[in-house]
């Protein structure tokens, strides 16, 4: 991610965006990890 | 699924940290010890089976290489045991496959056959054990290869690039499983699709098919990402499992992009062997796909699935050979239109075939009928 | 860890006798020679020599394929102060006749098979001892029942330890005489410069009838109390095994020629871990020019230092060293002289201005005594105590030497010196060939290859196989030209001498005009063509190390098509076992070469 961004928006901006992005994903992952997994079956159609 | 369990995460993270702290000579032992310990605690029978397979493989490989029967017998034995367990597990409910067995059996066979071909770099028993008892890929693949593992074992150094790559990969893996597949598709999209069912039976079934295919892909790819990411964090670059499979323009390309570690194993050891014995490329392709099907589960639906893909691959091969003179033989079609058409057919063939293995036979027929006839 | 320098033959024998009997001196293909075994056999050989009236000042011809026997006899002869004349065990009858005549020996110690090639009148003149070419059995039978002899108490350091013939193996042979003093001076330099000692395990597969195998192998190992590893003959298709052997036998050093390094680079990255171990020290590259690109790539790829060394048979073995110490190390150079002096001189023998090109001259204790019974030849190169190497060099401001050219007429192919006149002499005897001129052509793999222009006058050129067959009857395979180019007559200057520059130009034209079928090269090209067609790519993107993983178009279908196309192209059927083994282009090539029966794989 950083590698892709850095030449486009500069080193510091890339670090910031990458950190934010990772942070967002991390938060979502942790939130969702605590929920029971959704189990959708065809019969529910 | 273990990868989603906190306990597995704890084990892997601890093993990563510890292995970096160990001096070089002890690293292989440390890596192997962690995996063995994990397996012994989580699934003792599997630990025993893996240890036995490791011993058999090592013993067969260490014998005088001129004695082919040694290695051939070991390979047949290993695959036979796998087949027996798989068949039993597919039967009466309740019997679960020993953790990781499908993967580590194939790793043992890979090692044994490469040893037979004298293709392996000189290595120690500890390095062999570290390869087989490797926690990140132990329970859900990829089926990584010994030479690359060995090279990384010898050469790898801790550096920032490795850590950030690995961390990102793990994060993306979990995001695929939990955020995209789990929340976006399963929690949000699929109920909406269900809501569509009464008024739009065909559309809802079609969308269901796509969503199921994508969740299957995302979950599997996510597991692979987590495994690859943790392997990277431990200092290893293991073989990829997926490469944008739904962008494939024909069925052969699909199988080079889906579950790559499994298909390359089958190509190297099964396809070539069957071809060398029968000299029939199409038969070998059929056999290869059948084995891929059976590797998942020994059941009639996977047999059908395997044969269907086998036939598709064989046809595609036949078509490509016929067009061999043409410049763009890999797409097997004429330019842009051909590529799009190829993509369309391949994509839907794959999606339809997934239905076969995600449901029992009756449900699958239901789905096909609905899609064909346009509604209940 | 380095040992005390050995000052002479007697000291060497004593040091060997003091060494643990069970320590291995040479690990060979068919077994091992321990220090104890060598010492014991040397004693009984001394007895044999004494009984047969062989003593200091005499010469004995030694030629055998078996490494262990070779080393044992050589070391025994050293101790007895008898001069060894080492000959190529692949020598043909004509060569043997010339060389034995020139050497004027008192005895021949040779393989049974070679003895049969010696002219009957020569055989009658000398004592003849037969060896076998696999293992020590024949030697042991020879000395069975011999009582240990008493070798001379003193060996004159100025006496000749051995003679190695360089050029002129069919006429006017030049035998380099190396004295004991020179030999042990060189050994002392080796041991100190390389840091050899009892724990050294030196992998050196170079032939024992050349100085690199003999002195930088057998003798230096004995002097250091080290172990010499020679588990197999160098063959091109066994490079992987050689690399694996370095690891398995725990080699600490590898002596190689640049061609071997180039072949190792071609193996692909799987093999590049073989030398990355705790015990391996460095690679020694000798006998030919080491291209700086290859040098750097090898060090990067294999992760070990390459010590480039320069020397000649006339200076025992090496004179300059580029490494392992930092002071002498600079990639692209041959380093600096150790225990020797160098000068760069012009035509008249006067030192040139710094930075200018000139002939490299050497002075030091390791320089030869002269050419055996050839005072005029000796005087041409040994002047005022300086040996003129015939190589052109420059030295930079920091004292690093670089070889930039060659004055003398020699081709170095795969680290082996081939003298054009020797080749021409044999080619001129081939029926249908009126005249021959031999030149070296640069080659990525071998450094240079031997190429001959053949004048056939008004007749038709004889088939190349016939020429090769005739050639091999009279000269060893090392000298066989890789390419033949036919002319009505060779380009000559006003005095009638062949103009090499013009010949080179004409041959270059022919090579680029047509795809020339070489003895071994043609097979490789054809395999690459087949592969390129099967995988839908260009031949220049393929190499021996290419596999399904590195080539995009190498699908499983393409793979079987490749196999079937190879069977068609080379008219043979693959066994299932063989098919399973083909992972890379190199594998396919090896299989084809085995099956298609090329002669390839001889000495590098």
Q: Features of this protein?
A:
heterotrimer; B: 376 residues; mainly alpha; 3 domains; 16 helices; 0% strand; globular; C: 604 residues; alpha/beta; GMP Synthetase, Chain A, domain 3; Non-ribosomal Peptide Synthetase Peptidyl Carrier Protein, Chain A; nine-stranded mixed sheet; seven-stranded mixed sheet; disordered C terminus
Description:
The complex is a heterotrimer of chains A (45), B (376) and C (604). Chain A is mostly helical and 45 residues long. Chain A has a domain at 1-31. Helices cover 71% and strands 0% of the residues of chain A. Chain A has helices at residues 2-9, 11-34. The longest helix of chain A is centred in the middle third of the chain and has 24 residues, at 11-34. The relative contact order of chain A is 0.12. Chain B has three domains: 2-155, no CATH class; 160-233; 245-373, no CATH class. Chain B is an all-alpha fold. Chain B is built from 16 helices and no strands. In chain B, helix 2 (27-42) packs across helix 3. Chain B has helices spanning 6-21, 27-42, 44-62, 68-90, 101-116, 125-132, 135-138, 146-155, 160-196, 201-233, 251-257, 260-278, 281-296, 300-322, 335-358, 361-373. Chain C has 604 residues and is of the alpha/beta class. Among the domains of chain C are: 411-513, GMP Synthetase, Chain A, domain 3 (2-Layer Sandwich), CATH 3.30.300; 521-596, Non-ribosomal Peptide Synthetase Peptidyl Carrier Protein, Chain A, CATH 1.10.1200. A nine-stranded mixed beta sheet of chain C has the order 2-1-10-9-11-12-13-14-15, with helices on both faces. A seven-stranded mixed beta sheet of chain C has the order 6-5-3-4-7-8-18, sandwiched between helices. In chain C, strands 16, 17, 19, 20 and 21 form a five-stranded antiparallel beta sheet that branches. The model of chain C is unreliable at 516-520 and 597-604 (pLDDT under 50). Chain B binds chain C through residues 68, 113, 116-119, 121-122, 147, 150-151, 154-155, 252, 256, 264, 267-268, 271-273, 275-277, 281, 284-285, 288, 317, 320-321, 329-330, and chain C through 240, 244, 247-248, 269-274, 276, 303, 536, 548, 553, 555-557, 559-561, 574-577, 579-581, 583.
Give a short summary of the structure:
Chain B is an all-alpha fold and 376 residues long.
CATH architecture field of the domain at 411-513 in chain C? 2-Layer Sandwich
Query: Which CATH class of the domain at 411-513 in chain C applies here?
Result: Alpha Beta
Number of strands of chain C: 26
State the strand order across the main sheet of chain C: 2-1-10-9-11-12-13-14-15
